[in-house]
Design brief:
The complex is a heterotrimer of chains A (about 250), B (about 240) and C (about 280).
Chain A (H helix, E strand, L loop, with lengths): L1 H8 L3 H35 L5 H15 L3 H15 L2 H8 L3 E4 L2 E4 L3 H28 L2 H9 L4 H31 L11 H12 L2 H35 L1
Antiparallel strand pairs in A: 1-2
Chain B lengths: L2 H13 L1 H6 L9 H29 L2 H16 L2 H16 L5 H27 L2 H9 L4 H16 L1 H14 L11 H12 L3 H35 L1
Chain C lengths: L1 H27 L3 H8 L1 E7 L1 E2 L3 E3 L6 E2 L1 H13 L2 E7 L4 H6 L5 E2 L14 E2 L4 E3 L1 E6 L13 E5 L4 H8 L4 E5 L2 H10 L4 E5 H10 L2 H6 E3 L7 E3 L2 E2 L4 H16 L2 H10 L21
Parallel strand pairs in C: 1-5, 1-6, 10-11, 10-12
Antiparallel strand pairs in C: 2-3, 3-4, 7-15, 8-14, 9-12, 9-13
């Protein structure tokens, strides 16, 4: 009797399958966002050291606008605003989710929602990562740069061999924090119809009304994914520190 | 979209401006932008205090205490804020029979998570301040508490200021997740107006972006003003 | 590896779930009706952004709507003070289980799957799932099969569509305004909702757009909305049923209906032959 009641209360196996599918999408969109926003963020941070005032101001504007407004309306902007501007043929092509032939690899195009969600997340996270990295570069002391010049290193060399590695080391823990944020933020893409973990979780809730059970699973899955990123980050940071000491 | 319908949208915003700013006040409880400010300001203050303490803890604690602290902080960094708010609001009263007001739950959840991030920023700053400085400070005859308080911490905080501002800004924006427990902060009210007026989501959420931008940018300006004024003091 | 992780997840979460359940079951044995009467106040959860069922009035900033009227009628019949608790699909069940609300009167659609988690009163409202699209796009139910369709989160619309028309692509948005924005932008070709909400939507938009869109001539389901109650509260459920049936008998139900959907309202819609108490019960 008790066990029957319990199994009535638990989520049916098919819903666990749904959650799993949602989790995969969450991982995909987070991973791609981390990848792109790290690349773009570093480029922006480096460019923000440019000697041209215009470039510096432009980058500051970019960082300000994307960091100081909430992600959710930004996603609406990409999905409804930019989605509106795109040519109709292109959108229709995307809606069909065509498969792309890359020689030996065939990739199914992700959904229009996924692409717009990824774009929004990347633009948003890039600003944060650029800022963290800029903070790291500022942490490297001016004296070190002068010393590098004195050693006869060129501007680029001193940047590449003196500033960059140290900045990377200083800002790394903060970057890991941003990566964890990206996983959490990815849940907001459910508002524009990306079939990720939170979206699926809401579907299950609507269908079964087992809110607590459903949210318990979802919370655990997020915590696990984010702890894995954090653990890996800590581990890598320790190695960075040891390398620094040698 | 033609201009006339765009201006209709802004009329909707104008008509609801008072509602956006303070919600149902004074007939009901306070809401809107004012509540967003209250929520995020309280969370920022608590998060910063806890964060600095935990950051020092990360630097000086060893053994099991360090492990415990890391465990707690990892948990807080890992749990989505929405879920922490949800569980504290609904599960705490059921397990411990205490009824936490929704607004307090939101502040607590925001502050706890914010402090975990700030702790790591403080920690990163403190270990970056070079070993020589610690040694030099010790040789001046300062004890460990003094070294941390007067030498290491100020440098670490100054170095990590951009990171702090990042976290504070995040807290302001995350306060919009309070909808899960029906707290009437700004974004939530915007959603309600959006549902009533039906056809102006673009205008309403553009307005939301602008308001948050102003709040966050003002915070940033304030911080950079304050830190700039401090610099000469530190160096003379 | 993946399999292992899946298993681990399962075990890990069972613990938390059991805890939540234990508390939930524990609560189910108290008699809620006695509690409510002793308290002298009934807490009823209603939507606050779902016109015309429950939304914030522009002038007074108070929650009004059809569901609110029913909440008031129930409180009056019980001779109790009414406390409205504003809710949304994400927290209505937790509010009920954690006793922050005694009843849910929030456009709550009855399904068999849902009745495993909560009890439902007799239905007090009936709707059919319809569509809005550009004129001429949807003429027969077959037209749905190839479309991208926008739906609202927290409604059973998406589930129904997925079961009945698996080839249609359904995208759920947070609220109706977003679904409608997606329709206007061409991201989806139709949106789906209750006929009651769609009529309200069309009534609300500027004339130019109203001419462009139309509501589908057919509905693909018949759905019933009922009061949600905590599981196992038989006495409370019977009381609520009595009250609702009495509302139909003394004509109050019709008055409430006409206040929101009557001929003189902007979202006029005939009530049809539905009477409170009709419809399938779980």
């Amino acid at each position: 009797m008790f066990f029957q009641e319990m199994s009535e209360q638990l989520l049916a196996p098919r819903y666990l399958g749904w959650l799993w599918d949602g989790f995969i999408v969450t991982i995909m969109i987070s991973f791609l966002t981390i990848l792109f926003s790290t690349i773009f963020g570093f480029l922006l941070a480096i460019l923000s050291q440019s000697q041209y005032r215009v470039i510096r101001i432009l980058i500051r504007c970019y960082n300000g606008i994307f960091r100081y407004s909430p992600l959710l309306p930004q996603l609406f902007f990409w999905y409804f605003g930019i989605g509106n501007i795109l040519p109709l043929e292109f959108k229709l092509w995307l809606f069909d989710e065509p498969a792309i032939d890359l020689g030996y690899l065939r990739i199914t195009m992700p959904s229009f929602e996924f692409i717009m969600g990824l774009t929004g997340l990347t633009f948003y996270s890039t600003a944060f990562i650029a800022e963290e990295f800029r903070a790291g570069m500022q942490g490297v002391k001016q004296g070190q740069l002068s010393a590098a010049f004195a050693l006869g290193l060129s501007h680029w060399q001193s940047f590449r061999f003196i500033i960059l590695p140290q900045a990377w080391q200083i800002s790394f823990p903060a970057l890991v924090g941003q990566y964890m944020n990206i996983i959490k933020n990815s849940s907001l893409t459910m508002a524009i119809g990306v079939l990720e973990l939170s979206y699926v979780s809401q579907q299950i809730e609507t269908e079964t009304l087992k809110t607590f059970q459903d949210y318990a699973y979802t919370t655990m899955i997020y915590i696990m994914a984010i702890i894995m990123v954090g653990t890996f980050g800590n581990f890598y940071h320790q190695r960075l520190l040891e390398k620094g000491k040698r | 979209m033609d201009l006339s319908s765009f201006s209709d949208g802004f009329i909707v915003i104008k008509n609801n401006l008072a509602y956006f700013v303070w919600g149902n006040y004074p007939e009901g409880s306070i809401g809107g932008i004012i509540l967003t400010l209250i929520l995020s300001l309280s969370a920022i203050i608590i998060a910063s205090v806890f964060g600095v303490i935990a950051g020092i803890g990360l630097t000086i604690l060893i053994g099991w205490q360090h492990k415990l602290l890391v465990l707690i902080l990892s948990f807080l960094r890992a749990i989505p804020i929405l879920m922490l708010i949800f569980w504290t609001f609904f599960l705490l009263p059921m397990i411990f029979n205490v009824d936490v007001p929704a607004i307090a739950t939101v502040i607590l959840a925001l502050a706890l998570i914010g402090s975990a991030y700030i702790a790591y920023a403080v920690y990163a700053g403190m270990i970056t301040v070079s070993v020589e400085q610690w040694q030099a400070a010790y040789s001046l005859g300062l004890n460990r508490q003094q070294v941390i308080r007067y030498i290491i911490l100020p440098q670490a905080i100054r170095m990590m200021m951009p990171s702090f501002v990042n976290q504070w800004v995040s807290l302001i924006k995350d306060s919009s997740l309070a909808y899960i427990v029906s707290v009437a902060e700004f974004t939530f009210l915007a959603t309600k107006v959006n549902n009533r007026s039906m056809v102006y989501p673009t205008e309403i959420f553009l307005f939301v972006i602008v308001v948050y931008f102003i709040i966050c940018y003002a915070l940033n300006l304030l911080v950079s003003c304050l830190t700039k004024r401090k610099k000469p003091l530190m160096f003379n | 590896m993946i399999f292992k992780l899946k298993n681990f997840l399962k075990n890990l979460t069972i613990g938390l779930t059991l805890l939540a359940n234990a508390v939930a079951i524990n609560y189910a044995y108290a008699d809620r009706l006695d509690d409510i009467e002793k308290r002298g106040e009934i807490k009823i959860a209603v939507f606050d952004s779902n016109p015309p069922f429950g939304y914030i009035d522009e002038k007074t900033n108070q929650i009004i709507g059809l569901d609110v009227d029913y909440a008031m009628a129930i409180a009056n019949a019980l001779n109790l003070k009414l406390k409205l608790v504003s809710t949304n699909p994400a927290n209505r069940i937790p509010l009920l289980i954690s006793q922050k609300a005694d009843l849910i009167v929030a456009n709550f659609t009855v399904t068999e799957e849902r009745s495993k988690a909560v009890d439902f009163s007799v239905p007090y409202f009936a709707t059919g799932q319809k569509f809005i699209a550009k004129k001429g796009v949807i003429k027969t139910p077959d037209d749905i099969k190839t479309l991208r369709i926008g739906a609202d989160k927290g409604t059973v619309m998406e589930i129904t569509l997925r079961e009945k028309y698996p080839t249609a692509k359904v995208i759920s948005y947070d609220d109706t305004p977003f679904a409608f924005a997606a329709l206007r932008n061409g991201v989806v070709q139709a949106i789906t909702q209750d006929d009651a909400k769609l009529v309200g939507l069309l009534a609300n938009i500027p004339q130019v757009q109203r001419d462009e869109f139309e509501i589908s001539p057919f509905s693909i389901t018949k759905e019933y909305q009922a009061v949600g109650l905590p599981k196992g509260e038989t006495r409370l459920k019977e009381k609520v049923n009595q009250i609702l049936l009495a509302l139909e008998q003394d004509g109050e139900a019709l008055t409430i209906y006409n206040r929101w959907f009557g001929p003189q309202t902007s979202s006029a819609m005939p009530r049809g032959d539905f009477k409170i108490g009709d419809g399938s019960l779980y």
